[in-house]
Design brief:
12 helices; Rossmann fold; alpha/beta; four-stranded antiparallel β-sheet; binds adenosine-5'-diphosphate; binds magnesium ion
Length: 301
């Protein structure tokens, strides 16, 4: 399936700190997400992942660049207004910190049903509560949790509730911003499996944001590695892990611990020294779907 759902072109976003200082959080970022694919966006903390996600969700207005969703230029106010309901329902976002993203004063049933109320969507299963119960069950939780408050749930359960809430809108695009970063490793695996399962059942696209590559390895179809607001490499997941080309990707990969203790003992950490390469260089297509940023290596005297 090759139809493009989201087309991000030269997206740039600055934060103005004062009259002299501005932070270039996202800098000339371009990538596409196809229908039904899970695209992983990976990079260290502060590289601009959340800022990019907020631009894609119309939370921030980008400084420049274009974002086409289903061919609609979502940064054009007129086009946005014309398609407002579709844009607000068919794109859903899950945040890292569900403790603060879920309203602590609402019960789980109300949290899940709220988007249907806001958008005046008739619940397919008769009532808002029955719909909430269905979605909660669907993400692996029992109906007894419907009357609990978020503070009475574990982190993993809160993320399940956030996912159930998003599912009520039958999204075509789910943006998940480090949804497992604050969870224990065993719970992380459960939530990753849930994402994989949901994607295969519903066929929606997912932009899955993470700060380390190990999390996206089994989940994502394609991965983009981000550094200082830009992509440095994008490739199908298997290709990226087998044949990483950019020195920053190699450094990220070398940071993943090996499960085999013998191999772990011989694991060599690679560091990426940006001073050794011309920046930003150019994105070059090495093989179909595998792009890498090429910058001349600087020769040290
Ligand atoms: N609201 C803000 N005001 C000023 N600077 C910000 C703001 N949000 C993010 N930044 C800065 O923009 C850069 C990218 O941040 P962010 O998008 O949160 O990165 P990530 O999600 O990859 O950790 C960082 O240098 C961060 O400090
Ligand atoms: Mg972030």
């Amino acid at each position: 399936m090759c139809e493009v759902l989201l087309d991000v072109q030269h997206l740039t976003h600055y934060f103005k700190i004062n009259s002299k200082i501005k932070i270039r959080a996202v800098d000339d970022l371009s990538f596409q997400i196809r229908r039904g694919e899970i695209f992983g966006l990976v990079g260290e903390s502060g590289c601009g992942k959340s800022t990019a996600a907020y631009c894609l969700m119309n939370i921030y207005r980008p400084f420049s660049g274009k974002i086409l969703y289903r061919g609609i230029d979502i940064c054009d106010p007129k086009a946005y207004r014309r398609n407002k309901k579709m844009l607000q329902t068919s794109r859903q976002m899950i945040f890292q910190d569900s403790a603060s993203s879920l309203n602590g004063r609402m019960k789980v049933a109300e949290i899940i049903a709220e988007p249907m109320e806001i958008h005046h969507i008739r619940p397919p299963r008769g009532s808002l509560r029955r719909e909430a119960e269905f979605q909660l069950h669907y993400v692996g939780m029992e109906a007894s949790y419907l009357d609990r408050y978020p503070s009475q749930l574990s982190g993993g359960m809160r993320q399940r509730v956030a996912i159930a809430r998003a599912l009520t809108m039958e999204p075509a695009l789910l943006i998940a911003d480090e949804p497992v970063a604050s969870l224990d490793v065993s719970i992380q695996a459960q939530i990753l499996n849930l994402f994989k399962h949901l994607q295969s059942e519903h066929g929606f696209s997912i932009l899955f944001i993470a700060h380390d590559l190990s999390v996206v390895k089994y989940l994502c179809d394609r991965v983009g590695v981000m550094y200082r607001g830009r992509l440095v490499e994008t490739a199908p997941s298997g290709e990226l892990f087998e044949n990483p080309l950019h020195p920053y990707t190699k450094a990220l990969l070398s940071a993943i611990p090996c499960p085999d203790p013998r191999r772990e003992r011989h694991r060599v950490w690679q560091e990426y020294d940006p001073a050794l390469f011309e920046w930003p260089g150019e994105m070059v297509e090495i093989s179909p779907d595998h792009l890498v940023r090429k910058g001349e290596e600087k020769i040290e005297n």
